[in-house]
Amino acid sequence: MDYIKIRFGDDIDRLESKFERTIENMFRSAGPMFILSERAWKPPMDIYETPEEIIILAEIAGVSKEHLEVEINRKAVKIHGKRLEIPRIENSTYRLAEIQYGQFERILFLPAPIDTDNVTASYLNGFLHIRLAKIPLEVTHKILISDG
After folding, report:
1. 8 Å CB contact between 60 and 80
2. 13, 46, 2, 29: which is closest to 95 by C-alpha?
3. Topology, domain 40-84+100-136
4. For residue 60, what are the contacts with CB-CB under 8 A and spacing of at least 6?
5. Domain positions in the chain
6. 135, 87, 85, 145: which is closest to 111 by C-alpha?
7. What is the dihedral of CA 21, 27, 30, 32, to 10 degrees?
8. Which comes out higher in pLDDT, residue 52 or 141?
9. Statement: the pTM of the whole predicted model exceeds 0.70
């Protein structure tokens, strides 16, 4: 038995982009020259946390450090960059072309506020590893009350 997906609400934009991706994937399987447009890709990422910190692991093999940027604030992390396309071999027929190239950008909203002065990032073997220290919730500040 086949299942039918029913969507409630105003999701026309999402449906349209899903339709475009389906068509593009169909043509991409026929050959890499049939790609409809260059589009941003989304590298896979993991976010996990300990009581003291939030850790982000991004799989971005083939992106050089010079083409990679990380921006942070207390509530979110923005990771963006570009993977340059490897020159194609002349006089060859591609049977499969799945590796995505071009710009990417991910904005990750964090589950807890972080200390933006206590962040480290490293890049090794195609993985970007970001460690963000959480702001302790128990921290209190004493406020002086002035006269009048």
Report:
1. no
2. 29
3. Immunoglobulin-like (2.60.40)
4. 43, 68, 81, 83, 104, 126, 127, 128
5. 9-38, 40-84+100-136
6. 135
7. -80
8. 52
9. no
